[in-house]
Amino acid sequence: MKRLIIEAWAMALRDIKKRESIFKYLMAITLFGLAIFFVGFAFDLFVDFSAYSTSFAQYFSSGILIYFVALIGIQSSAELVIDRQGFTKLLLVAPIARGSLLLGKVLTGFIDSIRGYLLVIIFFLWYFGTFDPLLFAVMIAFMFWTIVTFTGLGLWLSSLFTNKYSAQTAEGMLVFGFLFFSGIFYPLAIIPEPYRYLLYVNPLTYSVDFFRFLMGSTPFLPLSHQLIGVIGFGILFLYLGVYQFDRFLRR
Amino acid sequence: MMDAIVVKGLRRAFGELKAVNNVTFSVRRGEILGILGPNGAGKTTLISMISTLLQPSKGTITVNGHDVQEQAQAVRELIGYLFQESILDGELSGYDTLDIHARLYKIPQDRRAQRIKELSTLVGLSKFLDKKVSTYSGGMKRKLEFIRTLLHEPKILILDEPTLGLDPAIRRLLWTYIQNLNRTKKTTILLTTHYMEEADELCHRVGIMHRGKFVKIDTPTRLKQSLRGDVIEVGSSQDLEPVLSDVVKLRFVQDAELVDGVLRIYVTRAEKNFARILSLLHMKKIIISSITIKKPTLEDVFLHYTGEQLQ
User: Where are the domains of chain A?
Assistant: First the structure.
């Protein structure tokens, strides 16, 4: 285990050191936070969310934040496959456990999501007055699990393709679908029953709903269903990701 | 003593293409073995399989007694691989590039800085380590990649076209490092190249690879001797095919062939028999446009065994 962590940390360190300066990073998250804030409040002017005991700003911000965390997971693992002729090749001839490659990308994704979104999340919790230390701790752990889940998904998806452009196109379509079919913008309750199944097969639906619960907004699904979805999809994608990546490397 | 690398009946196909076709050879401990061949000969595919990067379609490879398929991690511990193409992050500094690599190879913290200092001083990069790699010249980048490969002190070094695209001065410098490493640390080195001079200068033995197969492996000297004599090359605007059979019949001619319209004659004691060849060509009314006498080079060897020019 110690070895796995050392190797994964070395991989994450490379990604972290390549990032922009702290000034550019602070500028980016401030702009990002403001963008979410204004979109939420703009919609509040003509969307009535009182029936869901929340405002659109609060509802939307929790959903979009976990979407971006998931996005980091997908993108960071896809790098492993897309970079097959680059740094990944260097890793493949090094005495590194294959599990470390995945863990390294999970670590990178988690650090990136903390760096990118934690301050924004804290701001929203403070603004909406829903900060709870226990739920906040669970939220951090859940962000990690979201990264694990979507790193697995990204790895699985990108390993399916031999052509990196096909992989990128598939990922693009997937994240686009995730954005509109997971209840980020609208409550699941407004979708007619037969079409609602489209949302149930979307792994992000459960993450969005659980994160919404943790941020003190109104979720749609019962907590037990959220947890089953979150844990179930996490394990499934982790397994598929490792399995398909291993097959990809054997080609 | 056990050989460092033993390859038996190795094959690798990509669809219909047999990139490596039934290759058998071994690399002795402390030896520098060069694989010489043109682009597409199968050199990179071969070393990719040895370094565990690619699965063979058939055959076995052992590295210091470890089977590359069954004990891949043990093999990876032993080898250092310098890729043909540059794999560097321009955004990282030279120091970070080496430090991260050292961490991946689990070099203890107290040794990391020391090794980085030692190796960067050796290749004259120590003053530039805090600079971003994107600001390095091509030669500096190659040196950085070279010392990165050496950080964990591999017992077996695999170098894929180590000096490709470098200027002659840097190339010579890298040769010196490679030779010193082999001499002082007894590192076994397997390198691919399509530079004749590099193979001649560096390698204890050279394997000529052509269309996925080894056509000959031996020391550079013996390979050249295998042509049994000197080489006389005759150029003419006329077709030389009709005189080929007459030339071969001469007692002192070992062999003769036509390559791209040039008549190549392998002879013993060229300086003595040169005049007799000239008189034969004169008799056959051949107008000679050029004629050279030379000691055989690896290029001649390559040409002789493959029938093709090494590009």
Answer: 2-249
